[in-house]
Write a structure and sequence with these properties.
There is one protein chain. By secondary structure, the chain is mainly α. The chain has three domains: about 15-105, Fumarase/aspartase (N-terminal domain) (Fumarase C, Chain B, domain 1); about 120-345, Up-down Bundle (Fumarase C, Chain A, domain 2), CATH 1.20.200.10; about 355-425, Fumarase/aspartase (C-terminal domain) (Ribonucleotide Reductase Protein R1, domain 1, Orthogonal Bundle), CATH 1.10.40.30. The chain is about 60% helix and about 5% strand. It contains 17 helices and four strands. It has helices at about 15-20, 25-30, 30-50, 55-75, 85-95, 110-145, 165-190, 220-225, 225-250, 280-305, 320-340, 345-350, 360-370, 375-390, 400-405, 410-415, 420-425; strands spanning about 150-155, 160-165, 260, 345. It is elongated. Bound molecules: arginine (ARG). Arginine (ARG) binds next to α6.
């Protein structure tokens, strides 16, 4: 069994099942880089406060930096017999720096250490994720520009509503991603890594030696996981947005819609039905949204009613946090390729635009412009639509006599041009362009 960071007061060995149950190295090894950065900063605090001589600080820093470079090179091998990554790194330092390594843990606790490492990890992961969001946004913008002339039916309640530009539809996702990036940036700016809380009460080292990392309340510093919840909440919202994009594409790729073709590279087949080309990636994007919400709920439930300060329960914040970062980051990356390869079927989309229902609102506005009050114009057009459906006659083919029965204000010659997608979308002027 690997050497522990504690044990002096224990006369017995830990029950092997308890040892296994309480261990976190199998996932917190991901914090190695950030735990090392925390230790390197801590060595400086110890040097400035004269708990370490300059030469001791140098030796420890060199040892920590060597371990850090093994992490960066990918040659770092976590020792799975250790309780956690903090213990593992301490032991690895001991094998490089010998007895001097015993001084590293001066005025420090893992309670403090772990939250510092998770905060650094989170800031780095958020930065990467925000970069991935902007890459996906660039791909969506390019797709919108490439298809800038396509007009499609817009939907409410999944029913034909009014024509809209495809670029505007895609633009709605750009707005969501923009908010996501802002939200994540804000979350990151709010994360303040601190040192010097010790186990909970603070340490004998003056706050001035902790430089920018000094904490204003050491109890809160070791027991706060709000930042984890902020991240999980923000990632849940991003995942929800991606699931809506996924769902739109799933629907558009059905044979019934046929609006878009999803590249084979992003689909899978059926082991039984040879013809199948299924958009499983998109379905999993939908599915994983449940996992993202679950991760948030899991940490919220873990934190509920926990007495101050640190409790071991809080160790369970890491798997949900890592999981949500991994899910959203993979989705953002895969979506880039998928979106780039999307091919829209202009003819299939145009065929849907023949549905006169899409222009009923334009006819309503026409009557309003002619002086008809909005509410009565709404009723008139409703009756015209019903007449058209009941008698199988298109509104644009109705005679002046037929139209006159609904309103004396309608001029057949004038309304003909309303049933045109371009005229319809261009008549919407309320939106800044
Ligand atoms: N691995 C723990 C965590 O992730 C830190 C260890 C603190 N353990 C302790 N017994 N105080 O929260």
């Amino acid at each position: 069994m690997a050497k522990k960071l504690w044990g002096g007061r224990f006369g017995k060995k830990t029950d092997p099942l308890v040892e296994k149950f309480t261990r976190s190295i199998q996932y917190d090894y991901k914090l190695a880089e950030y735990d090392l950065l925390g230790s390197i900063a801590h060595v400086q605090v110890l040097r400035k406060s004269r708990y370490l001589t300059p030469s001791e600080a140098k030796t420890l820093t060199k040892g920590l930096e060597a371990i850090l470079s093994s992490v960066k090179k990918g040659t770092f091998k976590p020792d799975h017999a250790c309780e956690d990554i903090h213990t593992d790194i301490q032991n690895k330092l001991a094998s490089r720096a010998g007895a001097l390594a015993m001084k590293l843990h001066t005025a420090r606790s893992r309670n403090d250490q772990v939250v510092f490492a998770v905060k650094l990890y989170s800031k780095a992961a958020l930065k990467t994720l925000i970069g991935d969001i902007s890459k996906l946004s660039a791909v969506i913008s390019a797709l919108a520009a490439k298809n800038k002339n396509i007009i499609m039916p817009g939907f409410t309640h999944m029913q034909h509503a009014q024509p809209v530009y495809l670029k505007k539809y895609l633009g709605a996702y750009l707005e969501m991603l923009k908010r996501d990036a802002e939200r994540l940036k804000h979350v990151s700016e709010n994360i303040k890594p601190t040192l010097g809380a010790g186990a909970l009460a603070g340490t004998p080292i003056s706050a001035k030696f902790y430089a920018g990392y000094a904490t204003s309340n050491s109890l809160d510093a070791v027991s706060d996981r709000d930042f984890v919840l902020d991240i999980l909440g923000a990632l849940s919202i991003t995942g929800m947005h991606l699931s809506r994009l996924a769902e739109d594409l799933i629907i558009w790729a059905t044979k019934e819609f046929g609006f878009v073709e999803i590249d084979e590279a992003f689909c899978t087949g059926s082991s039984l039905m040879p013809q199948k080309k299924n958009a499983d990636f998109l379905e999993l994007v939908r599915g994983y949204t449940g996992r993202l919400y679950g991760n948030l709920m899991s940490v919220l439930a873990t934190m509920k009613g926990l007495p101050l300060t640190y409790n071991r329960d809080m160790q369970l914040d890491k798997e949900p946090l890592f999981s949500s970062f991994e899910i959203v980051s993979a989705e953002l990356k895969i979506f880039q390729g998928l979106v780039k390869s999307l091919e829209f079927n202009k003819e299939r989309i145009a065929a849907q635009l023949k549905d006169e229902a899409l222009y009923a609102t334009d006819l309503l506005y026409y009557l309003v412009r002619k002086g008809e009050p909005f509410a009565s114009a709404h009723a008139i057009v409703g009756k015209i639509v019903k007449y058209s459906l009941d008698n199988g006659v298109l509104i644009k083919n109705m005679t002046q006599d037929q139209l006159k029965k609904f309103s004396s204000k309608i001029k057949k010659g004038e309304i003909k041009k309303l049933f045109d997608p371009k005229v319809s979308v261009e008549s919407k002027k309320s939106v800044k362009r």
